[in-house]
Amino acid sequence: MTNREREQATLNFQKPEGRGTVAETFYPWVLTTNRFKEEGMPAEIADGAKDITNNIVGNKANQTEKYLAAEWGQGVMEYEQYLGFDPVRRIHFVLPFRRFEEKIIEETPEHIIKQDIYGRQVLKNTGSDLELDYKPVIETMEDWENLKSHAEKELEAYFSDKQIEAAYGHLAEGHDRGDYSIRLNIEGFFWVPRELLGIEAHMYAFYDEPELLHAINDYILEIYRTKLLKVIDLVQPDVIYFMEDLSGKNGPMVSPDCFEEFVADYYRALIPLFKEHGVGNVFVDTDGDFARLIPNFMDAGVDGFLPMDVNAGMDIVEVRKQFPKLKFIGSFNKLEIAKGPAAIDKEFDRILPVIRGGGYIPGSDHQVAPSTSLENYKYYIKKLRKIMEQAGADL
């Protein structure tokens, strides 16, 4: 059984040969890999595991693949294999209006205002490390039309068939052999308007400017239909997941009705195309408690969820009882890994019924925190490999 076949069997409610897939939910947090390096991980392994799409400490966007982001995933896969995980090749597809040059807008003795890689303006007061929102990417329909014009130029400059082939095509051979699975993440139809408008303005826009939200999402849908499908035709990802983050500890940020109009209808237009072009499973990444919206997500064609935020009350055992065919990645309480073997063992006991029921790749319920020692993380991975011998045992 190849690595790719093993992942497919693990997620698709089959009994894998030997054991189920051993994989992490997300790419690592640079603060955590820095700690691991201090505790003995080779520097070339730790330093190679970066996420180019987040401007976090010590990690700036790589402009050479700012939209067609594939090369960064090689370092992440090597890091994960070093630790004992199965090979997962992580790739991104970035929308053509979601990357900007970082630059200083204004600098005074009291503060600095800068544009970040997402096009937002943030303010940092002298003597403080805190960056405050200052101006969103867009505020009006006119702003959106201007941003869309910018995106059209970026599409012409960076998204030709030749450029897409050069970025992703080389992954097809190893993927076809089954050497690794491919996991592609993209920005979703709740996520992008929020990132452009800012959180509060986005919430008001559902009522005050629905035309603006639909204009944004119609354009996203067009790009995914025309450009993203070319990527999918090259590599047929085993998992595509939408980044949404539309829920908090107290529940979703939108009602089911708003979700249907502004998110689900776009899923319904897109997910069948993904499946027709060879995508294995479609997942949604949202933190918090989104239980109220699970039926809506499933009706829109979503196969599963990650990371299943334990500390927000997402109990994977109870959710599986309510939705027996729902698939999961994640749901291992990341805070328990830092506590050591006894806590890790107890957490595995909690999720074991879902492991035995199939359709589940256990992993941290978000990026492993820098409070975690390398020793404890290695224990967790060793235990995970052993317990995945029970994957699908009850099928």
Using only CA atoms, what is the Rg? 21 Å
What fold name goes in the CATH topology slot of the largest domain? TIM Barrel
The N- and C-terminal alpha carbons lie at a distance of 19 Å
Task: Tell me the strand percentage band.
Answer: 15-25%
The CATH architecture of the largest domain comes to: Alpha-Beta Barrel
Structural class: alpha/beta
Overall mean pLDDT score?
A: 95
Work out the count of structural domains. Answer: 2
What pattern of helices and strands is seen along the backbone? Answer: HHHHEEEEEHHHEHHHEEEHEHEHEHHEH
Helix content: 40-55%
How many beta strands in the DSSP annotation?
13
Looking at the structure, what is the overall shape?
A: globular
Note the main sheet: 7 strands, parallel
The side-by-side strand order for the widest beta sheet comes to: 1-6-7-10-11-12-13
CATH class descriptor name of the largest domain: Alpha Beta
Total helix count? 16
- Stretches where pLDDT is under 50 for at least 5 consecutive residues are 54-59
Descriptive report:
With 395 residues, the chain is of the alpha/beta class. It folds into 2 domains: 3-99 and 139-389, TIM Barrel; 100-135. The chain contains 16 helices and 13 strands. The protein has helices at residues 3-11, 30-38, 43-48, 72-83, 141-158, 161-168, 172-177, 191-197, 199-208, 210-235, 256-276, 294-299, 316-322, 334-337, 341-357, 374-387, and strands spanning 88-92, 103-107, 111-115, 121-125, 131-135, 181-187, 239-243, 247-248, 251-252, 281-285, 304-306, 327-332, 360-364. A 7-stranded parallel beta sheet has the order 1-6-7-10-11-12-13. Strands 2-3-4-5 form a 4-stranded antiparallel beta sheet, with no helix packed on it. The chain has a two-stranded antiparallel sheet with strand order 8-9. Strand 4 (121-125) and strand 5 form a beta hairpin. Helix 6 (161-168) packs across helix 10, helix 8 packs across helix 9 and helix 15 (341-357) packs parallel to helix 16 (374-387). The longest helix is centred in the middle third of the chain and has 26 residues, at 210-235. The two termini are 19 Å apart. Residues 54-59 have low confidence and may be disordered.
